[in-house]
Amino acid sequence: MIKLRPHFPSRQNEIDQAMAPIIRDMGEIGLFVDVTERNRLSEIADKKIAEQAKIIERCAGPINPNSGPQVAKYLYTVKRCPEFDSTGDDAEDGFGATGEKALLKILEHGADEEATAFINALLVFRGYSKVQSGYLTNKYTRPTKWDGIERLRYSAGFVKTGRLSTQPNTQNWPSRGPLNVKRMIVAPPGFKLVKADFEQIEVRIFAVQAGDEIMLKAFDENLDAHSYTAAKVFAPMHPDYTEDALYQALVNRKGSDKQKLWEFTRTLAKTVRFSKQDGARGKNFVTMIKTAREKGTSELLFPNVAADYLKQVDRLWERMNPWTKTFAETTLDFVQEHRYVYEDFHGRRRCFPHGYASPNEPPNQRIQGCAAGMTNQAVLRLDPQIEWCDDAGIVNQVHDEILTCTREEKALETKEILESEMRFDYHSRVTVFAEAEICSRWSG
Predict the structure, then answer these.
(1) Stated pTM of the model
(2) Residue 109, class by beta-carbon neighbours within 10 Å (0-12 exposed, 13-18 middle, 19+ buried)?
(3) Domain coverage including residue 75
(4) Nearest to 406 by CA among 123, 229, 190
(5) Does 5 fall in a domain?
(6) How many structural domains does the chain have?
(7) Which of 121, 238, 346, 444 has the fewest CB atoms within 10 Å of its CB?
(8) What pairs with residue 84 in β-bridges?
């Protein structure tokens, strides 16, 4: 039985105040931009936006996809789609919204082929337009004597989980695929970037808090958590493979003749695990996976996965892993009684005085809040040890990743400091750690 720790005094105000001067300096240094790469990414975004605009026009005729009233008229008057408000709840006739939650609700409820194609194209159109206008050609980019610099404004204490918020929002920068915005961030001449990302931090935190024996075993044996999850879940669907053989195939997927299949399988298993940790099951689980989209661009992650296949995955998971369900139910029962939940690293509390909008919010707060607490604590540990001068220092914190810029001759020393200070003995069976990397470009 999962036991929620008794409440103890929260250190959240103390942490947020200590972070304030650090994030001020982070914003002052900024991120150096390779303008040539940024222009290349901008061209990719423009091409994708034009492609989606053609699909939208083919479905709905000459329509402005940026016009809410025109989109609403097509969906609700022409196509007679069920109407939902901005939160995804039922709306009265004539009051249907056109935001993402309403559009996803229409897809979940069911729409004809043309309306479905229109909505999917519109979501991708908006995603790429947001990347283009918000991250590639935004007003916060300022030219300098070198290529360019991205000045960020950080805030602590506003995000409920304790994570930093930034303007522009680097948290939502696409970090893979053709529109990998992180590629445009580079080290200035004479400097190196040193980055470190916590290794599967949310899975490790969940394993401890939920008592997930499958993941605890994976960490005991130093296995890849997501490949191990995939082997456990999908082995019954691959009769030619035992669990061990499937795990080995997933771990050694690069360069194999089935690389794309195993990469897809591992990515699906990772998404399944996070949705289950958030309490999704049954119809809600199937919908969550079917509508999962790429961060930033809004492209579907699993466009060809059948609902029946996901129902089978759901049943297999429930039999294999009872801890995710118990964790969610225990957390929601605690919130029902106390009207709040808190993470167990710094004690950051989130109140739910009128209940929660979605049942995944309280479990999410416990996991992401704890991860945010560790990341913020790592920044506080790093601050006095990292060299701050000219363009050197901590330059960004994105979710569970910390990015620093340092003089070339200090790069190896900085790497060792990052790995040392981003290590937490969270539990007798679980250590949270990060592996640092020296690079000239943030990603790719």
Answers:
(1) 0.87
(2) exposed
(3) 35-146
(4) 190
(5) no
(6) 3
(7) 444
(8) 90
